[in-house]
Design a protein that fits this description.
single chain; 204 residues; alpha+beta; two-stranded antiparallel ribbon; 11 strands
């Protein structure tokens, strides 16, 4: 009698090719997923860097002294005056789009109104006389090396005036004026009303 034996033949060339192709496909899919995740992360990192550079390049700085202005017989500051310009390498920013806020120990104005009055200093003194529900006003008093628009470009300077509540800006009173441009970080001015208030005062 012939005896029957079970035989286990080795892989044929076709079977080996199928297994190899399967491994290659799995490796390709895995590599695609890994590379895709890496590209996505890199893109997000670039967006963060570009946003940071844009905000840094759009910031501004105060040039020179900050002055507190009042009437000749005034016992309180009427408004604060200072000059702003672009930082080195900064891009243009629309000053009229800034959000200006005033804060002291007794008064908080989260959004001081922007004024385009042709006689702004007197308008600021009038606005500073409001003692209840203070809103105040601010605006561009003078433009230096600038066009007629409100776009602060490199090399240009704007003299800004921000009204101060007349009943809270007493001598020795510390206050903060925040300037929030549409693009960029908040710029804060932290000053103190001097002990003796003259018509024009340098604030420290």
């Amino acid at each position: 009698m012939r005896s029957l034996f079970k035989q286990d033949d080795a892989f044929t060339g076709l079977e080996a090719a199928i297994v190899l192709i399967a491994f290659v496909v799995v490796a390709a899919v895995f590599s695609y997923v890994v590379l895709g995740a890496g590209f996505f992360t890199t893109q997000k990192s670039q967006e963060v860097v570009h946003t940071g550079v844009q905000q840094a390049s759009s910031s501004m700085e105060v040039i020179g002294n900050v002055y507190g202005i009042t009437s000749s017989a005034g016992k309180h500051l009427n408004y604060v005056k200072f000059t702003i310009g672009n930082t080195a390498g900064g891009t243009g920013l629309d000053v009229s789009k800034m959000v200006v806020s005033y804060i002291d120990e007794e008064t908080r104005a989260a959004d001081v109104a922007y004024s385009t009055s042709s006689n702004l200093p007197n308008a600021l003194k009038t606005a500073s006389g409001v003692t209840t529900n203070y809103a105040g006003a601010w605006g561009i008093i003078e433009s230096i090396n600038a066009n007629e628009d409100t776009l602060l470009e490199p090399g240009e300077q704007f003299v800004i005036g921000v009204s101060v509540p007349s009943k809270s800006a007493d001598p020795y009173t510390p206050f903060t004026i925040n300037l929030q441009p549409s693009v960029g970080a908040v710029f804060s001015l932290e000053k103190t009303v001097p002990a003796a208030i003259n018509e024009v005062n340098i604030l420290y």
